Request: fold
Amino acid sequence: MANCPENTRLHKFISFVFIIALSSTLCAQAYARGPYSYTGVELQNAVDEAYEKFKGLKDGKNADYIPILATVPSELFGVVIVTKAGDVYSAGDTDYIFAIESTSKPFNLALVMEEYGPEEVQEKIGVEATGLPFNSKLAMELIKARSVNPLVNAGAIAQVSMVKAKNEEERWDKVFQNMKDFAGTELKVMDEVYESEITTSWSNRAIANLLYNYGRLYSEPEDALRVYTKMCSVGVSTTDLGFMGATLANGGVNPKTGKRLMKEEYVHHLLAVMLTAGFYDESGEWAYTAGLPSKTGVGGGIVSVVPGVLAIAAFSPRLNEAGNSVRAQEAIDYISDKFDLNIFKPRKLPAVM
Ligand code: GLN
Reply:
């Protein structure tokens, strides 16, 4: 009995040391993960659930105005989350290589912003949403900027024509190198896609010529058209697209390579255009539901960015009327909702710390 107080003191001391050690470990982990705190298991479960939930969806159909896209197996489906630290959680066909198409546009915009700064982008291209389809010529007549915004075809052809270079070859090399840097890996042009697209590009050729006519193209129209079409024909996997998005989520630094690709203070300008124009004439609906800056492509890919946190990429070839992948948008919307990633929502998950 005489030993009792001392035992109690020793016991208290040991408990105290244990609690301090445990809480500082937890705090360090939580701090490292930042205010959004999801475990790897939760993120993996989310992509698995999204894949399972929507893999049976048959709505929509492959793009066929670029003939080769109609031949891509429609059942392919991949979903991936890449965190800003570069951790990858994936489900489905995330290694399948598909044509990046319009999901390339925000990444080239990053390059153009680096070369000119955001004000000149606003002035030389424009940043207004159209509410009209991605290849609209009517929008070019209605909107004073003509090129409209960098994420529709007109603005994307214009931004490619702005990339500083002494000739077409050098321009292409810069555009392509920038895409590889965003993906943090080697990429290839899908030659068959390029052939299929460039030989049927009458609509984009008209857009390039109209821009030139209005003094809103900054290289020869055919030069811009070829470089733009090649950019759209680059093959990526869903995981590559995830890393491209994660580079934006990470403030312009690729989490895989550590390479800075754009100034941090420009990223929010780019994300704003993605939010208002990334889904073309469905951008309003997408902001209203998923609430994430995103970019879609007629190859079936979509990339969404949660600024400062992570990127979600998904791919499936069947598109709705606006040219946006049906399954990919459902999958991303599901994940956004599950974790309250919508940028307009206050965080429901507690900020640990
Ligand atoms: N290369 C395609 C085009 O110019 C890109 C369109 C898209 O993905 N929405 O039509």
